[in-house]
Hints:
The chain is of the alpha/beta class and 470 residues long. It folds into 2 domains: 2-224, Rossmann fold, CATH 3.40.50; 234-468, Spore Coat Polysaccharide Biosynthesis Protein SpsA, Chain A, CATH 3.90.550. Helix content is 39%, strand content 19%. It has helices spanning 2-16, 20-26, 28-41, 57-61, 74-83, 118-125, 145-153, 168-177, 198-203, 247-252, 274-285, 301-311, 331-339, 362-379, 395-403, 405-408, 416-425, 449-468, and strands spanning 47-51, 66-71, 88-91, 103-109, 129-140, 180-188, 217-224, 234-240, 261-267, 290-295, 316-319, 345-349, 391-394, 430-434. The chain has a 7-stranded mixed β-sheet, sandwiched between helices. Strand 8 (234-240), helix 10 and strand 9 (261-267) form a beta-alpha-beta unit. Helix 14 packs parallel to helix 18 and helix 15 packs across helix 17. It is elongated. It starts with a helix and ends with a helix. The mean pLDDT is 88.
Amino acid sequence: MTYSYKEEVQKHFEAIAYDHDRWRQRNRYYYRDIERLCRFLIPPRSRVLEIGSGDGDLLASVEPAVGVGVDLSPSMVTLARERHPHLQFFCQDAERLELDGPFDYILLVGVLGYLADIQTVLAGLAPLCHPRTRIIAVFHNYLWEPVLRLGERIGERVPQPAQNWVSDSDLRNLCEVTGFEVVKQGNRLLLPRHLPGSDWVNRYLARLPVLHHLCLTQYMVARPVLVPAANPSCSVVIPARNEAGNIRAAIERMPRLGSHTEILFVEGHSSDDTWAVIEQVRREFGHSWDIKALKQPGKGKADAVRTAFEQAGGDILIILDADLTVPPEDLPKFYDVIASGRGEFVNGSRLVYPRSRSAMPWLNTLANKFFSIVFSYLLDQRLKDTLCGTKVLRRDDYRKIAEGRVYFGDFDPFGDFDLLFGAAKLSLRIVEVPIRYRPRTYGQSNIQHFKEGLVLLRMCLFASQKIKFN
Length: 470
């Protein structure tokens, strides 16, 4: 039974292989949207495998450093090789792949409906993955089945063999039973044909609550369930501007993290003696701690963090604000989450436990809750406290965020949103660690509430344009 179904699918694609361009041209608006989605999710120069690669156009559109396509139809493979000779295409059964991996991204676009055994295919992808691999599956919303069948009958869509109709809950379950974890999912395309107003409807209305459930295209991004790395090293970055009274405490209270803990102080044009205290502490504690002292070349926390991250040598990067309102003693909680693989981008949350009004006045609390709701919607990631300064990620992932910064540009003076937006675009698993937020014991906050509130509103607008309604 399984073999006969595969044979039926193979005959179908053999029959349409050299008439394929006519059908793609008729539905080019739909296919271009799929290409836009995949280009958004996949950074250029990645190692990409596509299952059900067809004519190879989608694989070529993401500009891979290594691009490999697999298809069941010999004619489709021949066509793909003719169109894209710089890529590799193989005629293989997706249930019995014979390929050399690993790949950074594996595409299952429009192919789930033709697979005889989706579970076997997903399980067979595991040897082709490394711990950071992302599986991207794109499939049709079952609500559209009557419309798509009608399209076949009136000649607007190529006639299809019997197909699987996989729901998002079906696919999530299949990922779980085959060793993958879903980190992102979404819907897009209310109008799959180019009509007056289609672009506006698909960019804005299709992303709104309730309406997005009616979209034609559904997608999921999954990652392998990770095997924890063995005791990775750690770099703790401490941006410090006018924080002379907190520098010594930061060292004295710092826990040992992983196989090696590196501490990088970044002084930011202080008007007090912060730099002198950093130098003194480095001399005093240098025999027992790996301490680096840096002066940031520019201004703002974002510049300070980027300066330190470029010098950091640890496998895991941690930002700790020098005001110590997030206690250094809490850093092992962050380290354990990311070292174990339970999260790939760890954000502190100050809004779970009670906090004194001196640490966070009620207006600040209200603003933080407002922005957490907005950014959770815009990033399609649950975030309770976007403004907590403590953020943790792997150095390899930071390098990918930095390489992809050209997409967003240099838009963020704080640095928090540069990292959050980059992590969301890379489909990293974002988790939060609750902390007890403490009042300052030295100095005054560098935050200018009204001015920076306006900047945050601009961040919301920016995220809506670059991520949610892109």
